[in-house]
Design brief:
5-stranded parallel beta sheet; Rossmann fold; about 45% helix; 6-stranded mixed beta sheet; globular; alpha/beta; about 500 residues; single chain
Amino acid sequence: MEILYRSTRSGAAPITASQAILKGLSDDGGLFVPEKIPTLDRSLADLSGMKYQDVAYEVMKLLLTDFTEEELRACIAGAYDSKFDTEEIVPVRKADGAYYLELFHGATIAFKDMALSILPHLMITAARKNKEDKEIVILTATSGDTGKAALAGFAGVPGTKIIVFYPKDGVSSIQERQMVTQEGDNTCVIGIRGNFDDAQTGVKQIFTDPEVRALLAEHGFQFSSANSINIGRLVPQIVYYVYAYTRLLAQGVIKEGDKINIVVPTGNFGNILAAYYAGLMGVPVEKYVCASNSNKVLFDFFTTGEYDRNREFILTSSPSMDILISSNLERLIYHICGNSWEKNAALMKELSEKGVYRITDDMKEALSRFAAGYATEEDTQDAIRALYEKEGYVIDPHTAVAASVYGKLRKEGLGAEPCVIASTASPFKFEKSVMKALGEDTSLSDLELADRLSAIAGVKVPAAVESLRSAKVRHTTVCGKSRDEMLAEVRKFLGI
């Protein structure tokens, strides 16, 4: 069955998976969604006997239908290899009654590696398939993790350039150091004097400007995206939720058909949307739990049916979730609108013009499988400290948000089904916040903190952090948050 992709904002003709991956974002500003969600054609029991790479193929073949088996397996083999520090790729660690899906064993120690290790392979294959001869310019905004994972994925890849914008004062020191020391002549990192929503808005405005696209084409370039707005980012994320279920099956924790709960620390909504798609493809899920930090726009949405970004933006210890415009929520809105682009586009227009929209009661009913909660900064620190004291297991602040929310919801009546918690980053990526939660001295330098954390956690300092000891800063540009200031930096880097 061929799966084609439509925009969430217009009735334009559907396009193939490879075309959607190349474009990244629809010309009308919408996101690409599959016309239908296929169901798994191998049993979960069959998949439970497979390694990660083979599960990835069985899932992705159903959604990327214009890729041949040879092409797709080559992309998977190129992505999930020795750059991960464990042969399992995604270990599942039991702690305090929950199952932590460790998504941080890739090159940049964050879950974004799971998709951004394969996206360059998918994109270059897609360019060949579509006889595209223009150089691909990856333009992306990051709240901390996407940037470095995308830079690592695309650095040195022929036929590509990558430009990453990040909030100058809105990421952890390790996150910033990872980005500004990135090597590769085709890479460009720019801090903006604003927050992540400002960076994301500016990127979208540049991306969808027809005059800018024409200018790029004139000079032999075309834009694409590495954000989770790109369907090539989202599809690989579905895999690890299918994989998680099959590991619990293989370990005898569940029987085939038993339901699980999935808790995801959520900012831009891509990771939890991938879990939702995994459920639609056949993974038995009781509840998708959306865990927010103090920027609880998603908690309020699931609680009230109103999405309102008109609020204070709070900088927290879980910066990858410091987001008030959750782009991927648009895909879910499209689906619960009955796949109506007209209804979705109207809501997105309200969000753009007024900063708020409200869904209907029928749409809210369609969200009954979702639960939501949020964790304050104090809750987050408590969760890190409690899990360490009980299990000797150290988690990062984003994972701690999810652990805290899970604990609260269990007390409020969340079912007793086995729970998978998406562990989205290594504690070494947010070591200062982790050490503070553990009551340790945080006055040390980043790398001294890493050594101390290693001793406390009994875990070796990851190579991604170890390599920063001698890394030189290569990117120092900072600009304003307006679209024009950001565009000027894009043009400067591309020489146009």
